């Protein structure tokens, strides 16, 4: 049996391009054989209070002083009225589960993790939050009460999670 890499190499030798035909749809597909390794640094200076809040077990968002909209994740500028007069507010750490799924096909950067549940909850004070779900996915039901808690990831850093209330 020929491996996918060997098949692609053969196609490249024959055609000069790594294009194969999808078996189901018949559509042409580009296959890239390069392995991706990604490291990056992202400035979080404008939302530094969010991370300081995590250290204290708090979930912080931002509120526009002009239009009153509340944002999570926090925003430096209001995406609604485009004003920059923003204040930091502590969000309520409780809400309602809206939906949940289990991610089985993980991106390479999460390949060290077992399949993991991800949920969306609507906080009592309004914003929706997307986070890993720390609970039995079989017991999760839309409309159930949940809380947002700060926990440590496998890598050792703090992050917020959704858990049953």
Structure description:
This protein starts with a helix and ends with a strand. A hairpin with a 5-residue loop joins strand 3 (60-64) and strand 4. The protein is built from 2 helices and 10 strands, in the order H-E-E-H-E-E-E-E-E-E-E-E. The protein has 3 domains: 1-34, no CATH class; 37-91, no CATH class; 93-165, OB fold (Dihydrolipoamide Acetyltransferase, E2P), CATH 2.40.50. The strands form 3 sheets. A 5-stranded antiparallel sheet has the order 8-7-6-9-10, with no helix packed on it. A 3-stranded antiparallel sheet has the order 4-3-5. It is mostly beta strands. InterPro entries: ChsH2_C (IPR002878), ChsH2_Znr (IPR022002), NA-bd_OB-fold (IPR012340), Thioester_dehydratase-like (IPR052513). This is Zn-ribbon domain-containing OB-fold protein.
> What is the CA–CA distance across the termini?
51 Å
CATH architecture of the largest domain: Beta Barrel
Task: Give average pLDDT, whole number.
Answer: 92
Number of helices: 2
- Rg over CA atoms, rounded to whole Å, is 22 Å
User: Describe the biggest sheet?
Assistant: 5 strands, antiparallel
Number of strands: 10
Q: Give the number of domains.
A: 3
Percent of residues in beta strands? 25-35%
Helix content: 10-25%
Instruction: Give the C-level CATH assignment of the largest domain.
Output: Mainly Beta
Strand order of the largest sheet: 8-7-6-9-10
Helices and strands, in order, run as HEEHEEEEEEEE
Counting helices, strands and paired strands, the structural category is: mainly beta
